[in-house]
Amino acid sequence: MSPRELPIYELESAVVSAVRAHGRLIVQAPTGSGKSTQIPQMLLQHGLLGERGEVVVLQPRRLAARLLAKRVAEEMGSRLGDTVGYQIRLESRVSDRTRIRFVTEGILLRQMSFDASLRGVSAVVFDEFHERHLYGDISLARALQIQQSTRPDLKILVMSATLDAGALQTYLAPCETLVSQGRSFPVRIEYLPKTVNFDHDAVWDVAARECERIATTQAGDMLVFMPGAYEISRTVQAIQGSRALRDCVCFPLHGELPPDAQDRAVARYDTRKIIVSTNVAETSLTIEGVTAVIDSGLARMARFDPHRGINTLLIEKISAASADQRAGRAGRTAPGVCVRLWTEREHAQRAPQELPEVKRLDLAEVVLTLKASGIDDVANFPWLEKPDPKALERAEMLLADLGAIGAATPSSRQDRRDEGVAPPGETSITDVGRKMLRFPVHPRYARMLLAAQERGCVRPVALMAALTQGRSFLLRGVSRDVDDAREDALGEEHESDFFLLMRAWSYADRSNYSLEACRRLGIHAQAARQVGPLFQQFLEIAEKEGLDVGERRVESSDVRKCVLAGFSDHLAKRLDAGTLRCELVHQRRGLLARESAIHKAPLLVAAEISEVEGRGGEINVLLSLATAIEEPWLEEIFPDDYRQTRGVVYDEQAKRVVSRRERRFRDLVLEAKVSGDEAPLNEAAALLTKEVLAGRIKLEAWDEAVEQWITRVNRMAEWFPELEVNPITDADRATLIEQVCYGELSARDVRDKPVMPVLRDWLTQEQLAVLDDYLPERLTMANGRRSKLRYENDGPPILSARIQELYGINGKFTIGHGRVPVKIEVLAPNQRPIQVTDDLTNFWREQYPKIKTELSRRYPRHEWR
Ligand code: ADP
Ligand code: MG
């Protein structure tokens, strides 16, 4: 079929006029219609790219980008890299003559962050948009921003096989949507009659058997969907080993294959062909001649793993919508059949649709990319679908912890970090952050690789990064025998659980993942096998960025420093040696896993943090994959987050003020200890005063007489305002106590401190003299006797005296040169008040005669006049 006959050409004139009219367009047409290969050519041929501009076609998959470029170059009769080129993570075939450039998602976003006006780009095409990759979402938002600001001439096209266009249409408005139904033939769906457990009957064997069965009834090529490279190679082996299928050619198809192997898979053959592919063949690529699809129903999917705080690729069940797309591959050129390797009942339980990545991935990497483009307020970025605010906060917190972003002013950053608060939205990218951006991996690993380069240990760090990606291959809770065998083969370990894991992986790798050898040490051979390609991938990325990936002797401490660089947000301090309890940065607590080998280190970093429900329903935070850390490294690697502070505290045991030195990493107090330093006297006095005011230290000299003195001062201020005496308030009392305490450190010394000298200082010499004159402590009466005066906060001063002391005295008393009347409290011989009066003359005449008889009878030995 000539490309001109493809269904998409029905839309050609509509596409051209819509792009001209709005500069925006949504195209929806089934897989195989010709969207990816033809639309870029239409743009070029109709002059929509201007004289020399290029169209950038965004592809979610590297394999698709390369094969599409190759195909389009062939159709246009040009050499790959000439008019038509591609650019993917580790490879690029472009030149300055290139007009149609297929790229993977990260490439475009990075180009936007380096050149915000996208010079030389006339159109951007977002292909396979229904997959809703995070980078696709973000790049589209950025493209719209660019179109609305500096580049109104930029053309934006969004294409997909299936699309819930409603929300997208509103987002892109004003924008037209063009739909083509395409042409397809019916596909019969078959399910397995009963559930198969792939742990017992391997998925590749089941798939090969289904191929054999279908081959007897159906002509044409077959397409088998498997989740990843390993399952694909096992399936190819099974098919090639089958007698019933010996007349077929069978090819693997996935992104890790060399280009010529990829080309072989899509080429045409005279004999029947079986292609075993990842979901790249689901909608990105069309393989001609397929009439039967065998679908494992599985795919490797990226998802945020809260245990490790990274995105991981795990094998998961695809959604019903994906399964329908896969089935559709069988009906391109003739009626077809699709065998699903699961039951119809199970099918009903599958999710109808995949969640968009923005809802299921860690956002750290894109947030960093946005900040690199100067978009600091990421919450208000024009997201097509807003991410969970918590996910954004978590991403910013992690980036701050990695040192990739920070507030513009270092001091405000510092304060917030000490409080353990997530940095606010206005943080910007740092120099470290910019360097990290060069590595197309999760920021944790970018940070680790940077640290590794500094320390000459890129290789082991790349391996560690690979080890944290997949699922754990070292089985837990193994028998005694296995435990012993492990110790024999792997040795003891006290520095990092990673080192044990690395040795276990080398062991498995050397044994070529032999099931027998792996079982002996409790190693999940298949999981261990997946580490190798990831390791290679990290090495390639590192090498591409100019890091030294050579084999060399490395210090264990250097490798451990790199773990710290990547996981500083998982730093934990053991609370005591007797238990496994730990305290972590960001106010968390947890328990170190029993099976960790790192039981002696007081400081560690846990690469995995998981929450497990305890027996009583409580949530326990479990720390595993631990690495011992030494404190000086914290300051070395994160100088802004490590602080030594001094402080002064009142030690309740020693009952004295002591100096303390505290060392903190962010909000985690690493150690607080008493130092020999002299406490500053003013701080010591303040702390002792607090103790005195709380009643925990008693000032012996602060007695009733002192209280009377204070009352006298206060009454003097009240009665004789012209003397300008300041009254002593409660706050002033604290100041006075502080002055008493000044110069002392211990409760004992404070207790015996004299008080009056400090109090006297409250008044001037003149005021002091006036105080004793105006408000004397004692009053000399007409009979020569001196009696004590009592001052209270209310009412007049009171003179108390026994009746016998008052004989011969008459009239009223005053103090303060006659201005303050005094009340007289008349006491019985037992010192009990019997009468209060302000005029004695009156007392002798009125009251005294009435009580005299009674009193003289009761106290006969006293004189009764
Ligand atoms: P769409 O993007 O709508 O799914 P494509 O533009 O990818 O469609 O493909 C349109 C048609 O071009 C396919 O049906 C197929 O016939 C042909 N084609 C595309 N790529 C290749 C290739 N690498 N080799 C052979 N034919 C191809
Ligand atoms: Mg396509």
Structure description:
The chain has 865 residues and is of the alpha/beta class. The protein folds into six domains: 3-179, Rossmann fold, CATH 3.40.50; 187-358, 3-Layer(aba) Sandwich (Rossmann fold); 363-437, Arc Repressor Mutant, subunit A, CATH 1.10.10; 567-640, OB fold (Dihydrolipoamide Acetyltransferase, E2P) (Beta Barrel), CATH 2.40.50; 704-774, no CATH class; 778-858, no CATH class. Helix content is 38%, strand content 21%. It has an eight-stranded mixed β-sheet with strand order 4-3-5-2-6-7-1-8, sandwiched between helices. A six-stranded parallel β-sheet has the order 9-16-13-10-12-11, with helices on both faces. Bound molecules: adenosine-5'-diphosphate and magnesium ion (MG). Magnesium ion binds at residues 35-36, 127, 284.
Count of individual domains: 6
Count of beta strands = 32
- What is the number of helical segments per DSSP (H or I, 4+ residues)? 32
Describe the biggest sheet? 8 strands, mixed
Fraction of residues in β-strands: 15-25%
Structural class determined from secondary elements: alpha/beta
Rg calculated over all Cα atoms: 43 Å
Keywords: ATP-binding, Helicase, Hydrolase, Nucleotide-binding
Protein name: Helicase ATP-dependent domain protein
Domain Helicase C-terminal: 209-374
GO molecular function, one term: ATP binding
